[in-house]
């Protein structure tokens, strides 16, 4: 019997040790994740005791994705901090709460949570007026970009910077990750004649910069902001940097939770999909999953079955991508889901241009050749290249896509070299 008791004790001890071991391993993993999680600009600002905001009347341009790493709103943080005098809020496209549809005009209002005025920068005005800025001494900008030129938050930042520099208002950017990573640069650089709110800077379609780095570039390079040279030189800009973010990190590597930046970008897969499939869809007769649970990631096209489209895409050997047939929730339909299997070799914009070529190939008449002038202008504002428009509208499926992709790749690499001087993270 003593032997049995001893065995029983040994068994309990072993079980206890195993449980403790697993607990320690779990804690180590949790601690490692916490230590490697990126601290955002707002986290850095909070750690510094909001030093750059002391004794200033503060305006805040942000949206629902303006959160700290624990998911607390920057609006709430600044409003609840006694040493910060937050006096006004400014909202971009989709509104300060992100519940407005793309392109919907938004009016000024009073924020029910804070009682502060909310000035819409996507309504009657897209640029803050002197009246909006009259009680503001510094403008804090906390916007989560998605790394793509046509996404309008960097355009909103540009116009806000211009207004602030014109009205002697300091600009403070709270930096955030580029979700695609800081090494992914791809697609055409927009031609100057097509600069607009869906393409405010002459940069590649996928630019590889954080919003703070874009702000530094805009403030440093003559001509990037539409203000006088004196206003540019006298403009006051500072960037509150992140801690722990490195250029090789895409969003899943940051340890951060994604918050929808707009209604059709609910998660990181949609973010990556936006720069792949958003190009040309309004003219190319293909659909990319808007309204389904896979926005910008599931493809269909008139004239081809899902299996035929999958076969066609696979024949093009697009680097870093795989395609699978997947059902989605719009009436039980099936489409072609785009899966990124190798982030390093993936060229984001290549898929969209291939879809344009396929659209011209399967249509009885080239849809690009038949487009209205207003549609052509919008297409060129998004893509940024008149030369590509001529190619696809005149030659359709025979367009020399490989030649354009090669030229754009060389331009993108040159831009990346030139933009290194504005990098805040190695």
Please sum up the structure shown.
This protein has helices spanning 2-36, 41-47, 74-80, 130-133, 153-166, 211-220, 229-234, 268-277, 306-315, 350-362, 373-383, 386-395, 401-419, and strands at 57-62, 85-91, 109-110, 117-120, 138-142, 170-174, 186-189, 204-206, 237-240, 286-287, 298-301, 321-327, 334-340.
CATH architecture of the largest domain: 3-Layer(aba) Sandwich
- The number of helices is 13
Q: State the order of secondary-structure elements, H for helix, E for strand.
A: HHEHEEEHEHEEEHHEHEEHEEHHHH
Q: Could you describe the largest sheet, including whether it forms a barrel?
A: 7 strands, mixed
Q: Return the CATH topology of the largest domain.
A: Rossmann fold
Distance between the termini: 67 Å
Strand content: 5-15%
**Beta-strand segment tally:** 13
Helical content band: 25-40%
Task: Name the average pLDDT.
Answer: 90
Within CATH, the superfamily of the largest domain carries the name Uncharacterised protein PF07075, DUF1343
The largest sheet has its strands arranged as 3-4-2-1-5-6-9
Structural class: alpha/beta
Tell me the Rg in angstroms: 25 Å
Q: What are the segments in which pLDDT stays under 50 over at least 5 consecutive residues?
A: 1-36
- What is the count of structural domains? 2
CATH class of the largest domain: Alpha Beta
Inertia-based shape: globular
């Amino acid at each position: 019997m003593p032997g049995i008791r001893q065995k029983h004790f040994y068994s309990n001890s072993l079980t206890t040790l195993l449980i403790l071991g697993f607990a320690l391993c779990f804690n180590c993993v949790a601690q490692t994740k916490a230590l490697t999680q990126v601290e955002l600009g707002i986290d850095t600002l909070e750690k510094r005791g909001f030093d750059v905001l002391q004794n200033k009347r503060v305006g805040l341009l942000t949206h629902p994705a303006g959160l700290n790493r624990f998911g607390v709103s920057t609006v709430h943080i600044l409003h609840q901090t006694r040493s910060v005098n937050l006096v006004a809020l400014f909202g971009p496209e989709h509104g300060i709460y992100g519940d407005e549809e793309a392109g919907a005009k938004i009016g000024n209002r009073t924020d029910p949570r804070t009682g502060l005025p909310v000035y819409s920068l996507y309504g009657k005005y897209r640029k803050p007026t002197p009246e909006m800025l009259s009680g503001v001494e510094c403008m804090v900008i906390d916007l989560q970009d998605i790394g793509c030129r046509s996404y309008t938050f960097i355009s909103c930042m540009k116009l806000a910077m211009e207004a602030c520099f014109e009205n002697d208002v300091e600009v403070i950017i709270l930096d955030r990750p580029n979700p695609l990573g800081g090494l992914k640069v791809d697609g055409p650089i927009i031609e100057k004649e097509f600069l607009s709110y869906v393409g405010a800077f002459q940069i590649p379609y996928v630019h590889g910069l954080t919003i703070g780095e874009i702000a530094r570039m805009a403030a440093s390079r003559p001509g990037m902001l539409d203000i006088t040279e004196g206003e540019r030189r006298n403009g006051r800009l500072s960037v509150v940097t992140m801690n722990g973010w490195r250029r090789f990190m895409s969003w899943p590597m940051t340890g951060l939770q994604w918050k929808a930046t707009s209604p059709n970008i609910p998660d990181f897969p949609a973010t990556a999909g936006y720069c792949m499939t958003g190009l040309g869809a309004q003219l190319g007769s293909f659909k990319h999953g808007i309204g389904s649970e896979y926005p910008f990631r599931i493809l269909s096209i008139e004239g081809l079955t899902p299996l035929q489209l999958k076969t066609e895409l696979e024949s093009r050997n697009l680097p870093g991508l795989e395609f699978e047939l997947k059902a989605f929730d719009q009436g039980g339909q099936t489409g072609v889901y785009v899966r990124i299997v190798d982030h390093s070799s993936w060229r984001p914009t290549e898929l969209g241009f291939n879809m344009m070529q396929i659209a011209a190939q399967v249509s009885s008449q080239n849809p690009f050749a038949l487009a209205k002038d207003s549609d052509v202008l919008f297409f060129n504002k998004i893509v940024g290249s008149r030369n590509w428009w001529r190619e696809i509208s005149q030659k359709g499926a025979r367009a020399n896509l490989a030649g354009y992709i090669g030229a754009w790749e060389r331009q993108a690499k040159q831009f990346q070299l030139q933009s290194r001087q504005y990098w805040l993270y190695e």
